[in-house]
Write a structure and sequence with these properties.
This protein is α+β, with helices and mostly antiparallel strands. Strands 1, 2, 3, 8 and 9 form a five-stranded antiparallel β-sheet that branches. A hairpin with a 2-residue loop joins strand 4 and strand 5. The protein contains 17 helices and nine strands. The two termini are 32 Å apart. 22% of the residues are buried.
């Protein structure tokens, strides 16, 4: 009989309605809600701190405007490379700008490519600007304000331009200048002045003559160069070097150098004298044999009839007459040269002596005089022109410092990758709610089944009938 009753109970429960299901869940609604909320919250935390940081990155877009950017060159003339924005030196400088960046592991970041940069041309125009994007993988920048770091990075890159400008050297190399002859030193100073003037012309074209840098206009800076080693200074020095015979000396000249130079000049004077005699003979209808022998000694070919001559200079810098067909022009040239030689030879001796009686000590006295002259004239001009060179370097560095700017397209970060925490939270809550609802239903169902079975046992039936009888007696 009991078995029959149990089958009846089971048959009845298999036919439970949807209403019975919701009624069963409703009795345990707080269990379902709290369970679903806990699971959803746990899922959000997992995505926030474990999954998203690995997948997520932050980026900012910006432009870089710097002087002469249309040339695509750094201040030192090297080619601009946007990848330098995340070069090791620039990133290290950015890290040092703020103590909050101290925890960054740069070795790991570079090894795992935790930082990257890309460039996008704004249009197809040849001179179109580029937009640069720096991207940081968040897993390598935990606890760091990514926006602040990217801005520090761009600040370091602008300093990178200034450093390139400061690395420039417009100055004349001291050793090269010191070892050059006075004649070559004149040439070096002329070339340096031309270089500095040309550089200021470039910057004046880029901006204007009135553009102020370091408290002065570019036009004023240029004028300072033009008035340095001006003609009223250069011309007297050039003349003195020629008349005194100092052209091929320098501030390292010794007495032995002076003595050897005098020997060269004397030999040239002897040869010139023979040429002059030959020219005069040729002009008077002679063969000019003396002249031919002298040219042969100089290593030159000369034909008196057509004036055909090949220029050459030996190691002693003896000057050879340029090609001339006119004998009278040749005669004028060598006569003038002879006078200069005599003047130079005379200036390279002690006043009360001849070269035949001069000692090496006497020549050392002349050498000291030559060195003093160089120090008072050409070395002084060298220092002045180098001072202008240093000023140009400072001007260029200041121009790059003041005109290299980063323009952000947005002042806020753009987050890329990862999963929306709101979506994760809602999705997990819905699934968890359904799971807990099912659990609540089956828990309630099993509990009811146990109660029904217990009520249909003989003991429970006897107790129920006894309770009913007691109730009737009381009535």
């Amino acid at each position: 009989m009991n078995e029959i009753k149990r089958e009846e109970v089971a048959t009845e429960e298999e036919g439970i309605s949807l209403r019975d299901v919701f009624k069963s869940i409703g009795k345990k609604i707080w269990f379902v809600l709290i369970g679903a909320l806990v699971v959803a919250l746990a899922a959000v935390l997992v995505f926030m701190f474990a999954i998203n940081p690995v997948q997520k990155s932050s980026s900012m877009n910006f432009e870089i405007d710097y002087p002469m950017s249309e040339d695509g060159k750094y201040p030192d003339g090297s080619t601009f490379n946007y990848r330098d924005i995340i070069s090791r030196g620039v990133v290290e400088d950015a890290k040092a700008k703020d103590e909050s960046f101290a925890s960054l592991d740069l070795d790991k970041i570079f090894k795992k490519e935790g930082i990257s940069v890309s460039a996008t041309k704004q249009s197809d125009d040849k001179n179109a600007k580029y937009t640069y994007t720096v991207t940081l993988k968040q897993s390598y920048f935990k606890g760091v304000n990514a926006e602040a770091f990217i801005k520090a990075l761009t600040e370091s890159f602008t300093s990178f331009f200034e450093a390139k400008a400061n690395s420039l050297s417009y100055s004349i190399d001291g050793t090269t200048f010191e070892n050059a002859s006075f004649k070559d030193q004149l040439r070096i100073l002329d070339e340096q002045k031309a270089i500095l003037t040309a550089q200021y012309d470039i910057w004046i074209k880029e901006y204007n003559a009135g553009h102020v840098v370091l408290g002065k206009s570019l036009g004023s800076h240029r004028t300072d160069v033009v008035t340095t080693f001006a003609d009223d200074v250069r011309t007297p020095i050039s003349t003195q070097l020629s008349t005194r015979g100092y052209e091929y000396f320098n501030c390292k000249t010794t007495g032995e150098d002076v003595k050897n130079r005098v020997v060269d000049l004397q030999e040239e004077r002897i040869l010139n004298e023979a040429i002059i005699v030959g020219l005069k003979e040729a002009m008077n209808g002679g063969t000019g044999s003396e002249m031919k022998e002298s040219f042969s000694a100089r290593g030159s070919l000369f034909a008196a009839g057509d004036g055909n001559e090949t220029d050459s200079s030996d190691k002693n810098n003896i000057i050879i007459m340029p090609n001339e067909s006119d004998l009278s022009s040749k005669l004028a040239y060598y006569s003038e040269r002879q006078a200069i030689l005599s003047q130079q030879i005379n200036n390279l001796k002690v006043n009360d002596k001849t070269h035949e009686t001069m000692t090496l000590e006497d020549y050392e006295t002349i050498a000291a005089k030559i060195r003093d002259y160089g120090a008072e004239t050409l070395s002084k001009q060298y220092r002045e022109i180098n001072s202008r060179s240093d000023t140009l370097k400072s001007v260029v560095a200041a121009i790059y410092k003041g005109n290299t700017v980063v323009i952000f397209n947005s002042q806020r970060l753009t987050d890329n990758g990862g999963t929306s925490l709101a979506i994760v939270g809602v999705a997990v809550f819905v699934v968890a709610f359904a799971v807990f609802a099912v659990i609540a239903y089956f828990v309630g169902k099993n509990g009811k089944k146990k109660i029904d079975i217990a009520e249909n046992t003989p003991e429970m039936k006897d107790r129920t009938e006894e309770n009913k009888a007691n109730a009737e007696e009381k009535e």
